[in-house]
Amino acid sequence: MNWDQVAGKWKQMKGVIKERWGKLTDDDLDMIAGKRDQLAGKIQERYGLTKEDAQKQIEDWERTRRQEDETGSAPAVKKTKQKNDAALLRQHVNTSVERECCYRNS
After folding, report:
1. For the chain, what is the domain count?
2. For the range 66-73, what are the long-range contacts, defined as Cβ-Cβ under 8 Å and sequence gap of 24 or more?
3. Do 51 and 5 fall within a single domain?
4. Contact 59/31 with Cβ under 8 angstroms?
5. Is the pTM of this model over 0.90?
6. What is the mean pLDDT of the chain?
7. Which residues of the chain are modeled with pLDDT < 50?
């Protein structure tokens, strides 16, 4: 997703942006009104970052949004699913090992 798309869908994007930068207020987002430089300034102000760090966060966020658009799902969702799958596998293995130990001790 490029910045023109973000600015064009600003009302819809405000919620997504607030999820990423929770310290931004609704008033901040209304004032930013889709302007990238304004967003960077508010991120810098609210989080005590340098201008470069704020810009980097926005670039990283844009990259993630583009990946989501290309793949149809969020990388974070995929990672969470992978973690959950791994946790279920560990739980299954642990349960199997416990059963085997109990069986041998009987």
Report:
1. 2
2. 66/1, 66/2, 68/1, 69/1
3. yes
4. no
5. no
6. 82
7. none
